Amino acid sequence: xxxxxxxxxxxxxxxxxxxxxxxxxxxxxxxxxxxxxxxxxxxxxxxxxxxxxxxxxxxxxxxxxxxxxxxxxxxxxxxxxxxxxxxxxxxxxxxxxxxxxxxxxxxxxxxxxxxxxxxxxxxxxxxxxxxxxxxxxxxxxxxxxxxxxxxxxxxxxxxxxxx
Length: 163
Hints:
This protein is mainly beta and 163 residues long. The protein is 9% helix and 33% strand. It has a single domain, classed as 4-Layer Sandwich (Purple Acid Phosphatase, chain A, domain 2), CATH 3.60.21. The strands form two sheets. A five-stranded mixed sheet has the order 3-2-1-9-10, covered by helices on one side. The termini are far apart.
């Protein structure tokens, strides 16, 4: 069984930073947890690795309508549930055999194990909001083990005003 490196990004809000592109290179798969902001973001990410995306609450334009609100994927026997807003999770993942729940929306990075399920929010890789970090993340799957890592992007300037 080989290891898989999954790049996780969320809340780009139309901004795909060069630092994010560089960090995600070498990923086996990319997950975008919504609030993409522009179709071009998806095209650019698809050039890096295969991409699974969900629609966020701000993805209301015509290009985003075909995107699902949730997605489930199984990698190396590990089930992952992807959605934008964790408050919309309507079931107990541990009862459904889900090992990882990936979300966005809050812009707050989270890498927390609860009831045997890894809850993973990479934070926002788009425009900085308030004092929250500009970040993305990685999931490493190998031989039944799962590890999440949040990466704060360097050289991400402070943005003033609303995001």
